[in-house]
């Protein structure tokens, strides 16, 4: 790194922490010795005192460090490195002083440090909340900037997506047109194709494996499905690009049609294959949750196996299966690499699966890769699309997870 | 349509019936004749093979992957394990009620109509309505649910659920009803109702019931079979069995010395 | 008629036949679904391996060239090389003068950039003309031709090699100056514009650094959060309601599209905190956030599998709750936590989209030395290479995928091994 100062500062903090630990330990150890000499037993061991002092010093140091780092990057004139250094040494030293004064036999350092540890653990569990808030804040912030240039109405209902060029007169010079309907339509088309593949196939795989398959079949197919689940999406994308797309084009050519290599069909099909394991494992969970007594009841009434499965098992598991499908839809909408590589970038408003279409994620990638100035409507549009993506997938996930979880406990 | 077999001809005839689960022999060499229009009770300590024997009569053991049945089982002189017998058809003749009532998670009506719809037993909606009502009446549940046929069946009380699954079995018009400890999850009042019902039903059906209550077997059954470790130890008229059992193991079990 | 026959009326039998047919159909759908999934996997693996395996070897040329002059202050090594090769293939000066494209074609059959680099190095050591032995990779064109990926039977306008080039290559093969060797460059070199020099080193280093940073952050934080939620979080009242919100939040976060995490990283780490684009540090931070919910969920499952009686007995002996949990519960749950975390790491290793967002798509020709240097990652490198149309790139992309899949298989194998061992211990 070109600028070594932050690293030196980190080393100073480390030294302060070590120092605090040693100082506090030394002081507390003297009390402990006195205690052996007949005085009242101290309420905590030296290491507890030492840990407390070290943690306090470290917290103070890290706070000063982060504030300094932030200010330094954004307002280099305000914070000189000297001031930063002074604060970095001064404040923790003050804290160490207070901590050392507190090292007394009647001070319950262990209880304090445990309460702090518990608070620390609680803060860790808040990382998820902070992440979510961070996502919402950054998406909303950038999207708001975008909607100062482009009206929400045009974005949601406009049918022309062409971020590179100014189409209509009167628009700001470098900005294009941002009618996202073709993008949403493309996302919808590919999601529909993917679900049409993954839904029935995933469900039937789950049913066949748990109800019909021999142990040998299961021993082969289960790992195969797990491998499908573990393959990175960029690999699926490449597969769509070099194998599935060309094959579709070939077949279409033989039937006299002219089809591009990059098409909604190629991307949708491969995405469907990618989602099969998700659907099948979730369906497997809910199907297994249907109690055996229900199946036996149906069999004893003279139902064949498939009749029992369709009329009793499916019917009881339906909410869970719907939840699984919703999660699959959310996954398909948010999937990026397959569509980036196999669906193309042309914003066609088309319902023809053989056309190249574009999706929300493809456009986000297209708008943000390559060199461009930040804060241009082009890059901000990516955040507006990201916001739409986040809201839609979040709603789907909340509903789906609620349904799946409620369903799982219902029979237990 | 069905011509009435003379009452001395047995409904079921088992000869040398054995059931194995993988290597474990759950039943061996069972010879038993079950008479029609009567109640036969199967008793014995838990794990002795009562449920397994019950499942022999409607071939439910076929659905258990590791179970193998051997020997001959005749129903009205037809080998129900014969090659031309479809278990699906057999089960339409031999109804079964399980230990824990498990109504399907749908309406009361749909539960009872399940079998008739499956087997195409009704020609019209009115026909089906009639069958549902008849079955619910026979199961003694009609008065309680006639106004809420559309309510979800799992909302009924356990006693009502047990009679509902009985009605469900009756709706396919079977000749035999198998019951596996049907009263074990019921309170005494619901049990009494069920027993009265069995008393009523035995005029039309051949009933085989597994129970672990000696008193219940004594109250409702005409004949009783005592099983022990997968073998049929004793099979006799109920009053004989309970007054002077021939085998000491039967005696021990009835008097509560084991099991 | 007795019972069984009474129901076996012709109508009932016909109906039964239909029901049995429906049963067979249903079973067939199941088989078809299985066949579809397995075929898809087989096709994928076949197409990757059949295109990629040949990239693990590379043709090399041993050339003894007569270099005319290496004097003057700025020798044009490309010209020198072309002239020396012309002599090698007995092309007269006249021919060279008549047909301007000959020089270009000559340079196309070997890795010209590698050859000129070697000449330049030699020229610095002993700046004299004379015989030079070059041991250099063949160009991607020659390499693909020799591997049989270019059909010599096609019309000259249909294939990328000219008739002349085929002649020269054949001549090299006949004189035994071509050998096929393991393609070390694929693992040792950073990226390059020339397929025969392009390698994964920058991507591998980048991926390793990203993974280390991401796990170093996500593992302690995720496990800590799981421990809190499992043992210390309030279960009832106002606090309990907050905690259940946190849990819903974690579950939902795990299902948020990964590209959204990339947008977060771009907005927060790069735009707000001013870190540079394309560096492993930012990649690690973003993937740490992505891994976090996965690790929390896996760790909670592992912790919940440990019976409460364990901590209860420690508590009854006077340990504090903190001690009971950390000394008795966490060590037992550790293998499960580790397994879940390893699977989370495997997922992170395959993540591409969030890295694109933070600019890790740069063309990086140096192996990164620190997490603050520009780098790519393995999946991103795959994406980058996949964009080039030439056969040689498709071959190398597939080879990179094979490498990635093998690493993923090893990682997952490790996780499975850990899980088995854990289960065996439990059973005992
Ligand atoms: N599916 C099975 N697999 C293996 N053993 C079984 C299975 N079902 C029952 N058994 C065994 O067969 C014996 C008889 O079981 P069961 O007929 O259920 O006994 P009962 O109903 O008299 O209590 C028991 O020892 C039981 O453990
Ligand atoms: Mg039983």
TrEMBL record, chain A:
<keyword id="KW-1133">Transmembrane helix</keyword>
<feature type="transmembrane region" description="Helical">
    <location>
        <begin position="121"/>
        <end position="141"/>
    </location>
</feature>
<feature type="transmembrane region" description="Helical">
    <location>
        <begin position="308"/>
        <end position="329"/>
    </location>
</feature>
<feature type="transmembrane region" description="Helical">
    <location>
        <begin position="183"/>
        <end position="209"/>
    </location>
</feature>
<keyword id="KW-1003">Cell membrane</keyword>
<keyword id="KW-0472">Membrane</keyword>
<dbReference type="InterPro" id="IPR035906">
    <property type="entry name" value="MetI-like_sf"/>
</dbReference>
<keyword id="KW-0813">Transport</keyword>
<keyword id="KW-0592">Phosphate transport</keyword>
<comment type="similarity">
    <text>Belongs to the binding-protein-dependent transport system permease family. CysTW subfamily.</text>
</comment>
<dbReference type="InterPro" id="IPR000515">
    <property type="entry name" value="MetI-like"/>
</dbReference>
<keyword id="KW-0812">Transmembrane</keyword>
<comment type="function">
    <text>Part of the binding-protein-dependent transport system for phosphate; probably responsible for the translocation of the substrate across the membrane.</text>
</comment>
<feature type="transmembrane region" description="Helical">
    <location>
        <begin position="52"/>
        <end position="71"/>
    </location>
</feature>
<feature type="transmembrane region" description="Helical">
    <location>
        <begin position="264"/>
        <end position="287"/>
    </location>
</feature>
From TrEMBL, chain B:
<dbReference type="InterPro" id="IPR003439">
    <property type="entry name" value="ABC_transporter-like_ATP-bd"/>
</dbReference>
<dbReference type="InterPro" id="IPR005670">
    <property type="entry name" value="PstB-like"/>
</dbReference>
<dbReference type="InterPro" id="IPR003593">
    <property type="entry name" value="AAA+_ATPase"/>
</dbReference>
<keyword id="KW-0067">ATP-binding</keyword>
<dbReference type="GO" id="GO:0005524">
    <property type="term" value="F:ATP binding"/>
</dbReference>
<dbReference type="InterPro" id="IPR017871">
    <property type="entry name" value="ABC_transporter-like_CS"/>
</dbReference>
<keyword id="KW-0813">Transport</keyword>
<dbReference type="Pfam" id="PF00005">
    <property type="entry name" value="ABC_tran"/>
</dbReference>
<protein>
    <submittedName>
        <fullName>Phosphate import ATP-binding protein PstB</fullName>
    </submittedName>
</protein>
<dbReference type="InterPro" id="IPR027417">
    <property type="entry name" value="P-loop_NTPase"/>
</dbReference>
<feature type="domain" description="ABC transporter">
    <location>
        <begin position="12"/>
        <end position="254"/>
    </location>
</feature>
<keyword id="KW-0547">Nucleotide-binding</keyword>
<keyword id="KW-0592">Phosphate transport</keyword>
UniProtKB/TrEMBL annotation, chain C:
<keyword id="KW-0813">Transport</keyword>
<feature type="transmembrane region" description="Helical">
    <location>
        <begin position="200"/>
        <end position="229"/>
    </location>
</feature>
<feature type="transmembrane region" description="Helical">
    <location>
        <begin position="28"/>
        <end position="49"/>
    </location>
</feature>
<feature type="transmembrane region" description="Helical">
    <location>
        <begin position="330"/>
        <end position="350"/>
    </location>
</feature>
<dbReference type="InterPro" id="IPR000515">
    <property type="entry name" value="MetI-like"/>
</dbReference>
<keyword id="KW-0812">Transmembrane</keyword>
<dbReference type="Pfam" id="PF00528">
    <property type="entry name" value="BPD_transp_1"/>
</dbReference>
<dbReference type="Pfam" id="PF11812">
    <property type="entry name" value="DUF3333"/>
</dbReference>
<protein>
    <submittedName>
        <fullName>Phosphate transport system permease protein PstA</fullName>
    </submittedName>
</protein>
<feature type="transmembrane region" description="Helical">
    <location>
        <begin position="399"/>
        <end position="418"/>
    </location>
</feature>
<comment type="similarity">
    <text>Belongs to the binding-protein-dependent transport system permease family.</text>
</comment>
<dbReference type="InterPro" id="IPR035906">
    <property type="entry name" value="MetI-like_sf"/>
</dbReference>
<feature type="transmembrane region" description="Helical">
    <location>
        <begin position="279"/>
        <end position="298"/>
    </location>
</feature>
<dbReference type="InterPro" id="IPR024573">
    <property type="entry name" value="DUF3333"/>
</dbReference>
<feature type="transmembrane region" description="Helical">
    <location>
        <begin position="250"/>
        <end position="273"/>
    </location>
</feature>
